[in-house]
TrEMBL record:
Pathway: Cell wall biogenesis; peptidoglycan biosynthesis. Residues 207-365 form the L,D-TPase catalytic domain. InterPro entries: LD-transpeptidase_YkuD-like, LD_TPept_cat_dom, LD_TPept_scaffold_dom, Transpep_catalytic_dom. This is L,D-transpeptidase catalytic domain.
Amino acid sequence: MARNLPLYARPAAALILPLTLLAAPVAAQTSVKEDSVVLQPDKVTDDAPEIETVAEANLPSWSVDNAKTLLAFIQSAGDEGLFPKDYNPDALKAAIDGGNQITLDKVATDSFLLLATHMRDGRTPNAARKQWFMTDGDAQTEPLIPLLGSALTANDVAQALVSLDPVHPDFAVLKAALKTAKTPADANAIRVNMERWRWMPRDLGEGYVVSNVPEYLTRVVHDGIVIATHKAVVGKPSTPTPQLNPMATGIIVNPTWTLPKSIIAEGIGSTIATNPARARAQGYTWTGSGKSLSVVQQPGANNALGVMKLEMLNPHAIYLHDTPSKGAFAADSRAFSHGCIRTEKALHFSGLMAVMFAGRTPEEFGDVVASGKTTRFGFEKPFPVYVAYWTVVPDGKGGIKKLNDLYGRDAPVVTSFAKPGRAAAVVISPTPPAVVPTTQTVQAPKPEKGAIY
């Protein structure tokens, strides 16, 4: 059956939704308010570096040729969107010329580890990464000490460093564009977005959904190929959409909507108190009253989440969902939401999710939509959703285009370029850290009366 085949092996007809769904009526509601983002405080503290001793690292010595290769790479670090002065090129050259092996090993190792940290994790300190909550496992999948050891053994220092670049082709486009940037401002804009790529996992995975907030677009990617693109409505500046990458675990069709207290206070609470019949007509049910009032909107034409919600558990209450306010998708700038991401053509999106990730047939999906009942399709294999913030992206013609920085997140990163970047993720200690010995105190016996000691 088609449901048991991978997406690329299914006949095209298996991915086409029933035609009756395409003609589903669209509600005219225009003042929808969906779940509010839970604003979390920015991360301002960088991870403490790991300490390894010389003996633990077990690194071979730096040859002069390997050190010269590192120096040449540092001098060209501008091509990577980084700054050569950060990696102590003068001291490295002096160590190469000085002929002292101990000094060369220390200076070259320090420079390599700092440069590798910035290429793998980004140079930007956490304090300049506004509303950034991405989780990045590159420290586990791309450990730096083994990388350095193999680079010195194989005499391929430059290749080892380049191997830390993000693998996505968009990063390569930015890297190429940096060489032809016409102004310092253009160069910094590109550097900011190369940095953002490095804040994310180096490899985004085989299948994922990515929403680029400044672009107002959501894409579904399979095996590196964009198989669907949807317009998106994102958070307005007062309720900005954060950067995060939760795992999507299912698609909920005909969802209910539990209203946050902030939105209850904005109006529906008053409607329930003064005109409960009107509130019921809009699909609201409730328990309690006053400060204990709890409100749920049932599935239906007026439901603020529309016909679907992508389940992606995260502490920010961010998810992708439908909306009855279809008119917002016609605007060029679509920053209207309370933080969540409204998705155009939600039937197509949720149908694709049900078929591609939950192993359902289009007919099964269509029956659930038509039933009006809340139904969850759990994904056989959860996948990441990247809610990203790139303000410079490929233009599809071999170049790049700049997008509006609607939340003003670029400036703090540019400002950080004039300051020291993140510390190296791993620090080699020439001697083992001091260890305070644990001793057991034994009380001396009291001298016997008349005894002489």
